[in-house]
Amino acid sequence: MSTDTFIGRGELIAKVAIATAIHITGGGGLKYRSKVVGYDSGLLITALPAAAQLPESQTPFESFLGADTALVMRLIVDGNIYAFGSKVKVQYQEGCKLLLSSLPEKIQIRKLRAGVRYPCVLQAGFLLGETKYRGVLINISEGGCLLRMKLTSNVDGIKAIMENDKTSTLNVRFPFDSSDSSFHIKIKSLSQETGHLLLGLSYADSEETAVVVKRYLDYMQLEQLSEYLTLS
């Protein structure tokens, strides 16, 4: 693709830290998220996923990862996505569960888009005083998110928080976490649609929140660019 450039294998190794998240896809619908464990003589070492990470259609996953199985690997570092084709060399099931696969001489690189608002469906809990209201995040960006709640929520209480520029708490369950992430937020807008309230929210504790939100946005970009490098 015209927007793509390439770097050498050694340059990628110098940029990517141990434990960097990596997105792996293969034939038969194989798709999982892992971490970089290390490098060895032209081979990339990644962690094999736990069975709980995969849908039943992808287990036992060992059958998808036989020797010479073609994979596509993508990871994000410093605002860039790196993508490359790889072939399985060996997998280790004893002790640390590891996958060793080839790391090519040339790696595709593309700059990620900044300031993008992504549609999503994330369960969320909005705390108003002592009462928690359930809702759904329907889009999210680095600066804020849009929460949809039932119209039966305490509209007057929400308006009071917004008018007084007070913070509240939002709990969100992201797909890569086993527990909720908790944010301090401010309400920037309030509108209605059929049967629902729409709350435009900004993050109040920007530094801590930014790390979690960026991880999710990176995850979303990896998902959306799943055809960026196709299997041959």
Search tags:
six-stranded antiparallel beta barrel, alpha+beta, 232 residues, elongated, Pnp Oxidase, Chain A, 15% helix, Thrombin, subunit H, 14 strands, 3 helices, six-stranded antiparallel barrel, 48% strand
Structure in words:
With 232 residues, the protein is an alpha+beta fold. It folds into two domains: 5-112, Roll (Pnp Oxidase, Chain A); 118-217, Beta Barrel (Thrombin, subunit H), CATH 2.40.10.220. The chain has helices at 9-15, 155-163, 206-224, and strands spanning 5-8, 21-26, 31-40, 43-47, 70-77, 80-92, 98-102, 106-111, 118-128, 131-140, 144-150, 167-172, 181-193, 196-203. It is elongated and about 65 Å long. The relative contact order is 0.15.
Report the order of strands and helices: EHEEEEEEEEEEHEEEH
Count of β-strands: 14
What is the CA-based Rg, rounded? 21 Å
Oligomer: single chain
Return the domain count. 2
Task: Please give the structural blueprint.
Blueprint: E1 5-8, H1 9-15, E2 21-26, E3 31-40, E4 43-47, E5 70-77, E6 80-92, E7 98-102, E8 106-111, E9 118-128, E10 131-140, E11 144-150, H2 155-163, E12 167-172, E13 181-193, E14 196-203, H3 206-224
Antiparallel strand pairs: 1-8, 2-3, 2-5, 3-4, 4-7, 5-6, 6-7, 6-8, 9-10, 9-12, 10-11, 11-14, 12-13, 13-14
Give a short summary of the structure.
By secondary structure, this protein is an alpha+beta fold. It contains three helices and 14 strands. A hairpin with a 2-residue loop joins strand 13 and strand 14.
